[in-house]
Amino acid sequence: MKQSASAPAPDENPSSDGRLPGTDAAGSTNPQREVALDPRLLARLVCPVTKGPLEYDRQHNRLLSPQARLAYPVRDGIPLMLPEEATPY
């Protein structure tokens, strides 16, 4: 059965005011909003540059690659693992 365009997908839970999680009143996402990173995901991720392990920096909501000295941002719980998104730390 086809869902109407206004109904959220089954895995999306709108808030009491009808907004999807991680969106503001205008419906856009807030990149500064911290969403917990699943530890199972962190255990499987590696730095795309060095293929070494990553550490989660909860205070700045980013993944750190100690070998490359690069920080990968995490936005809405999704790590951005592209080298061009990384910043030196």
Which terms summarize this structure?
N-terminal domain of TfIIb, five-stranded antiparallel beta sheet, 1 helix, 19% strand, globular
Task: Give the arrangement of secondary structure elements.
Layout: H1 39-44, E1 55-57, E2 62-65, E3 70-75, E4 78-79, E5 87-88
Antiparallel strand pairs: 1-2, 2-3, 3-4, 3-5
Region (Disordered): 1-38
GO cellular component, one term: cytosol
Protein name: UPF0434 protein E3202_06285
Arithmetic mean pLDDT: 78
Global geometry: globular
**Architecture of the domain at 39-88 in CATH?**
Single Sheet
Q: What characterizes the major β-sheet? A: 5 strands, antiparallel
- Reported by name, the CATH topology of the domain at 39-88 is N-terminal domain of TfIIb
| Number of H- or I-type helical stretches | 1
SSE string = HEEEEE
Residue runs with pLDDT of under 50 for 5 or more positions: none
From the alpha carbons, calculate the radius of gyration and give it in angstroms.
16 Å
The portion of residues forming beta strands comes to 15-25%
Terminal Cα span = 50 Å
User: How helix-rich are the residues, as a percent range?
Assistant: under 10%
Q: Assembly type of the shown chains?
A: single chain
What structural class is derived from the secondary structure elements?
mainly beta
CATH class of the domain at 39-88: Mainly Beta
> How many beta-strand runs?
5
Pfam families: Trm112p
Protein name: UPF0434 protein E3202_06285
Region (Disordered): 1-38
GO cellular component, one term: cytosol
